[in-house]
Amino acid sequence: MIEIQAGVAQWRDQGRAAYQHLGYSPALSADPISHAWALHMLGLPDSHPVLELGLGRMMVRTEVPTRVALTGAFRAELNDQALGGECAIELLPGQELRLTCRAGRFGYLAIARDIALPKHRGSVATLAREGFDYAEPCFGDPLPGKLTTRPQHTEHGPIRYLPTYEHDDFSESAIAHFESFVWQIDPASDSMALRLLGEAVHHQIGLEYSTPLAIGAIQWPSGGVPMVMAGAHQSIGGYPRIGCVLPDQLARLAQWPQREPLQFVATDWPDAQRRLKRALP
Q: Higher confidence at residue 8 or residue 242?
């Protein structure tokens, strides 16, 4: 038996992208790179469920030896002893694993056992606003695989984005403001949208119709500040978009410390492809 007590936790897998045309959110992880590495560290397939914690505490106990991997922004303690950074460990009977996440950042827990969860539209992903609430899993047999670690690639500097969507419709001054202004991450951010704090800038761009959204899309309300669509974003949006954050950069943004200065810089497709290949396991 495995016991999990969690705060704002959500199950994540490969999501519901195939149903986005029907109005469903893709329901993906806010930090897709940390999600992928949690599975890789245990040798698990991409389809295996992972727990995403975006706020609060999680406690894990087990009656049988169980391999687990921790990635992202967890502060972790095993029997009251701090674990340093991201890791894969063998959790033994009698041990208590305590995990904490602060608002606006995300941690991922992968468990190397068969996990039975109800599927909705082909996915176990939790999304309360669409009626897919957190479900208690049934844990089965252990899965084979070796414990590995995630290499530490520390990147500094601005968040890179592709100038897509309505980028060319924005004025030069609006684009310059977006790239030169020093933003911050709003603590109200969640797995639907990573919201920015900063000076509100008015622009004259308007959309006649709501149009499909991609993960990483940077929506900019006419009288507000930009926000970046995360993994559980809605399927369509009516605000103009100045571009789209690269997948590996979205992972950085999902773990960006609150109140830390943040800037954006435009890049191109070749750079996006190179970065994604380096980031994924």
A: 242
Tokens of 251: 């992972």
The answer to whether the Cα torsion of 114, 129, 20, 280 is positive or negative is: negative
Can you tell me which residue has the tokens 């957190």?
Answer: 134
What is the torsional sign of CA 237, 239, 241, 245? negative
Using an 8 Å Cβ cutoff, are 217 and 244 in contact?
Answer: yes
Distances (CA, A) of 139 to 49, 62, 116: 11, 11, 6
CB 218 within 8 A of CB 244: yes
* 8 A C-beta contact, residue 67 and residue 38: no
pTM reported for the whole predicted model: 0.89
What is the mean predicted confidence (pLDDT) over 252-260?
Answer: 87
Q: Which helix (H) or strand (E) holds 36?
A: helix 32-40
Question: Looking at the chain, how many residues does it have?
Answer: 281
pLDDT confidence tier of residue 103, bands split at 50, 70 and 90: low
Distance of CA 84 to the CA centre of its chain: 21
Measured CA distances, 61 to 92, 102, 107, 198 (Å): 8, 22, 18, 42
Q: Which residues of 102-117 are buried (b: 16+ CB within 10 A; e: fewer)?
A: eebbbbbbbbbbebeb
Q: Give which of 267, 256, 254, 272 is closest to 179, Cα–Cα.
A: 267
Tokens found for residue 89? 């460990």
Checking if the pLDDT of 206 tops 80, the result is no
